[in-house]
Amino acid sequence: MNLEKLTDLELIHKFQDSGDQLYVAELYRRYAKHIMTICMGFLKDKGLHQDVAIDVYLTMVNDLPGKTFENSQRFKNWLAVISKNLCISKLRTIKRESKIIYWYKDIENLNNHVELEDAKRYNSVTPDELKKSLDTLTKGQKRCLELFFFDGYMITEGVLKRLEVDGIPPNVVNKLKAIKDIDIRGAGFFFDQIRALIDGDEDGFYKSVIMKYAVISDKKSYKDISESTGYSLKEVKSYIQTGRIKLRNMIKKILEEKENNNDK
């Protein structure tokens, strides 16, 4: 049988009667460009387009047996709706995973340098709990620990120019000037700053480019911290040592409270 001669509705009916995916494959072939155009409007990454396109095909296989359409245009409209919904679902997943990844980088640095019992690792701590714990430290302790443990991020004039060359919209670039030349420590903290400034970036494309260019350094040495803050080497070592102890105790307290609540 020459599938190309069948109408869309005939292909749908034959699939519903036989369950043969050859009919779905022909329908998909006809509208592949339409589906990909929709995906490209939502997702910047070609690999993500292909992922969603596969999901569209699987949805067709699963849902078409229970569907009826008045004409081909209604079927095309249905494809557009499921393509859009699957793109939005993909964007939400990316956004959620990106947040987790950024905070994981920060917390893993603490795991490597501030020892706790195995059952009380910092990756059991939420971002808000980590912030709360850091805020209990003195100004010197907090600043030295941030410089010692966390990567640094800064929006400089050079970063702004590189973003413009990469096609980041002028309105986004202008918003970033609000944190220009501020040394922000921790990928998670920096992520929060740019997320608060930028709207309409559901897939995280702008944020990923910004964070790539804005990285200024890995953790700093005692000497680097002394030069950066004006504290003496003795003060830096003291702040880091006492800050470690206080931070460890705060985290232990939070985790113990969680354990007690779970036991109730």
Can you walk me through this structure?
The chain is an all-alpha fold and 264 residues long. It folds into 2 domains: 3-91, Rna Polymerase Sigma Factor, Chain: A (Orthogonal Bundle), CATH 1.10.1740.10; 94-263, no CATH class. 72% of the residues lie in helices and 3% in strands. It is built from 12 helices and 3 strands; from the N terminus they run H-H-H-H-H-H-E-H-H-E-H-H-E-H-H. The chain has helices spanning 8-18, 21-42, 46-63, 72-113, 127-135, 139-149, 157-165, 170-176, 187-197, 205-214, 222-229, 233-263; strands at 152-153, 184-185, 215-217. A 3-stranded antiparallel β-sheet has the order 2-1-3. Helix 2 (21-42) runs antiparallel to helix 3. The longest helix has 42 residues, at 72-113. It is elongated. The termini are far apart. Mean pLDDT is 81; it is low at 112-123.
Distance between the termini: 67 Å
Question: Strands across the major sheet, in which order?
Answer: 2-1-3
Could you state the order of secondary-structure elements as H and E? HHHHHHEHHEHHEHH
Number of continuous helical runs: 12
Helix percentage: over 70%
As residue ranges, the low-confidence spans are 112-123
Strand proportion:
under 5%
Average predicted confidence as pLDDT: 81
* Biggest β-sheet strands, sense, barrel: 3 strands, antiparallel
Please state the overall shape, judged from the principal axes of the Cα atoms: elongated
Cα radius of gyration in angstroms? 26 Å
Structural class computed from helices and strand pairing: mainly alpha
**What is the strand tally?**
3
Number of domains: 2
